[in-house]
C-alpha cells in the first residue's frame, strides 16, 4: 500500500552548513593534516579557473565558513582575510583560458586543484575535493565530496579563497579591457558580456575559444593588439 504524502508545507527550510566532522574522523584514523580543495570559474566565458587548497587549524577555525556562493561579497572578503590569518596552510593555483582550451574545463579544474595542493607549505595526508572527482596525481590520499563546500569547513574555506582570488584577477582584467566589464560579471555570460563580445570580439588568451558562442559561432578571437586570429 502506497504511503500517503503530506500536503503540509515545511515551516522552514533546513540549510546544511559545513562542519569539521570529515576532518575529525580523518584525524582519528591518523590522516592529518587534512586539506580542503575547491575551484572557482568553471562556467565563465573568460578568464582562468582558479583553485585553492586550505589546511585549517582545528583550534582556530573562522566562524561563518560556508559555500562561497552562499556568501555575499563582503562576507567572502572578510572570511578570506580570516582564513589567511588562521589556517596552517593556504595555496592557490590557476589554469589559463589557453590551458582550458587545450584540454577541457573538468581536466583544467582538477589540474588547478592538484597544483594548489602541491603548493601547500604543509604536506597533507588526506585531500578532500569538492565534486565527484579526485584530481589525478595527488601526493596524498584523496576523497571527493559532492557538495563538499556545504559539508566540509576545509573545502568551504578553499571555495572562499578560490572565489576571492579569481574575482580579483578578473577585476584586474577589467582595468585593462574596460569595454567588457569583467569587474562586474567576472567573465560569466551576462547580457553585458555577450553584447561586448559581439561588438568588440573576444580577446585571445582571455576568452575561452573552446566555449560557446566562440566554438559554435565561429567568432574570431582578437589578440591584445586587436588583430584577428586564433592562437
Automatic annotation (TrEMBL):
Necessary cofactors: Mg(2+); Mn(2+)
GO BP terms: DNA replication, removal of RNA primer; mismatch repair
InterPro entries the record matches: RNase_HII (IPR022898), RNase_HII/HIII (IPR001352), RNase_HII/HIII_dom (IPR024567), RNaseH-like_sf (IPR012337), RNaseH_sf (IPR036397)
Residues annotated as domain RNase H type-2: 32-223
Cofactor note: Manganese or magnesium. Binds 1 divalent metal ion per monomer in the absence of substrate. May bind a second metal ion after substrate binding.
Enzyme class: hydrolase
GO cellular component terms listed in the entry, alphabetical order: cytoplasm; ribonuclease H2 complex
Keywords: Cytoplasm, Endonuclease, Hydrolase, Manganese, Metal-binding, Nuclease
Residues that coordinate or bind a divalent metal cation: 38-39, 130
Any Pfam family: RNase_HII
Catalytic reaction equation(s): Endonucleolytic cleavage to 5'-phosphomonoester
GO molecular function, one term: manganese ion binding
Localization: Cytoplasm
Enzyme Commission number(s): 3.1.26.4
Source taxon at top rank: Bacteria
Classification via SUPFAM superfamilies: Ribonuclease H-like
NCBIfam families given in the database record: PRK00015.1-3 (NF000595)
Function: Endonuclease that specifically degrades the RNA of RNA-DNA hybrids.
Sequence similarity: Belongs to the RNase HII family.
Name of the protein in question: Ribonuclease HII
Native organism: Mesorhizobium mediterraneum
Taxonomic lineage: Bacteria, Pseudomonadati, Pseudomonadota, Alphaproteobacteria, Hyphomicrobiales
Gene that encodes the chain: rnhB
Amino acid at each position: 500500500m502506497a504511503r500517503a504524502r503530506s500536503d503540509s508545507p515545511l515551516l522552514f527550510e533546513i540549510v546544511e552548513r559545513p562542519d569539521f566532522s570529515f576532518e575529525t574522523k580523518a584525524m582519528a584514523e591518523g590522516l592529518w593534516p587534512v586539506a580542503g580543495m575547491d575551484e572557482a570559474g568553471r562556467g565563465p566565458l573568460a578568464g582562468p579557473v582558479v583553485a585553492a587548497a586550505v589546511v585549517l587549524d582545528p583550534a582556530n577555525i573562522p566562524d561563518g565558513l560556508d559555500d562561497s556562493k552562499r556568501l555575499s561579497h563582503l562576507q567572502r572578503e572578510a572570511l578570506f582575510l580570516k582564513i589567511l590569518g588562521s589556517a596552517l596552510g593556504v595555496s592557490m593555483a590557476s589554469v589559463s583560458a589557453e590551458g582550458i582550451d587545450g584540454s577541457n574545463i573538468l581536466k583544467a579544474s582538477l589540474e588547478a586543484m592538484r597544483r594548489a595542493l602541491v603548493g601547500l607549505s604543509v604536506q597533507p595526508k588526506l585531500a578532500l575535493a569538492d565534486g565527484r572527482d579526485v584530481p589525478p596525481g595527488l601526493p596524498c590520499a584523496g576523497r571527493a565530496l559532492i557538495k563538499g563546500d556545504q559539508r566540509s569547513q576545509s573545502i568551504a574555506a578553499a571555495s572562499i579563497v578560490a572565489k576571492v582570488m579569481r574575482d580579483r584577477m578578473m577585476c584586474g582584467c577589467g582595468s585593462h579591457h574596460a569595454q567588457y566589464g569583467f569587474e562586474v560579471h567576472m567573465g560569466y555570460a551576462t547580457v553585458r558580456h555577450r553584447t561586448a563580445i559581439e561588438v568588440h570580439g573576444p580577446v585571445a588568451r582571455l576568452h575561452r575559444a573552446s566555449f560557446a558562442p566562440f566554438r559554435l559561432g565561429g567568432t574570431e578571437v582578437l589578440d591584445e593588439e586587436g588583430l584577428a586570429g586564433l592562437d
